UniProtKB/TrEMBL annotation:
Pfam families: Nebulin. It comes from Vidua macroura. This is NEBU protein. GO terms for biological process: cardiac muscle thin filament assembly. The keyword Repeat applies. Keywords: Actin-binding, Repeat. The gene is Neb_2.
Length: 242
């Protein structure tokens, strides 16, 4: 009974130009933060033109120069009149203390004497350590260990060079094949070779006779007093002509 009414309640048709809809759209536009700041965002995206002789720029530069000059001369203004009574800067206690601290902290002046003394080394020529070092250098020297022969320079197209190359090639071939000379004339059976063994293993894997056992080869003993056997014997006695 109420099915049509419930279905009609779900289907609502409101015209988009009704006063309530227009009022709701106007209120949404008024309270929208995106539309509120849209003009400001678009203005920020545009480039601005600020000249170098603008009043705010000149004011900022003047303030910066005044502050910089004031900070730069602040310590000097505080120290004015403190040096009265000293004939020179070396007699001033503060400058003397600063110079002394700088000299102590200077690494170059600290290591100057050490660096000058490093170059002044006097070792006797016949010292035991020097002699041992010389003997060790002689032992490990490659020049004294090897005596290189004279390197002759020959043209590559000389007859003796060509003949030597041919003799070397023949000798090299003979030496390369010398381990096969004792095998010459010896017979060889393929039984036990890799290919034969591999073929046998593959044949065993594919052999159906070895893979499965036939039913007639299984030893089977029937039970004498099973119901089937007893029934078969009874039927045979009943049907027997004897």
């Amino acid at each position: 009974y109420t099915e049509a009414w419930d279905a009609d309640k779900k289907s609502i048709h409101v015209m988009p130009d009704t006063p309530d809809i227009l009022l709701a759209k106007a209120n949404a536009a008024n309270v929208s933060n995106k539309l509120y700041v849209q003009a400001w965002e678009e203005a920020k995206k545009k480039s601005y033109d600020m000249r170098a002789d603008a009043i705010p720029i000149k004011t900022a530069k003047a303030s910066r120069d005044i502050a910089s000059d004031y900070k730069y001369k602040e310590t000097h203004e505080k120290e004015k009149g403190h040096y009265i009574g000293c004939p020179s800067a070396k007699e001033d206690p503060k400058l003397a203390l600063a110079a002394r601290a700088m000299a102590l902290q200077n690494d170059r002046l600290y290591k100057k004497a050490y660096n000058d003394s490093k170059t002044q080394i006097h070792i006797p020529v016949d010292a035991l350590s020097v002699q041992a070092a010389k003997e060790c250098q002689t032992l490990v020297s490659d020049i004294d260990y090897r005596q290189y022969l004279h390197q002759w320079t020959c043209l590559p197209d000389q007859n003796d060079v060509i003949h030597a190359r041919q003799a070397y090639d023949l000798q090299s071939d003979n030496v390369y094949k010398s381990d096969l000379e004792w095998l010459r004339g010896i017979g060889w059976l393929t039984e036990g070779s890799v290919d034969v063994v591999k073929a046998k293993k593959a044949q065993e894997l594919l052999n159906d006779r070895l893979y499965r056992t036939r039913p007639e080869q299984l030893k089977f003993t029937s039970i004498a007093d099973s119901p089937d056997v007893v029934l078969a014997k009874t039927n045979a006695m009943q049907l027997s002509d004897v």
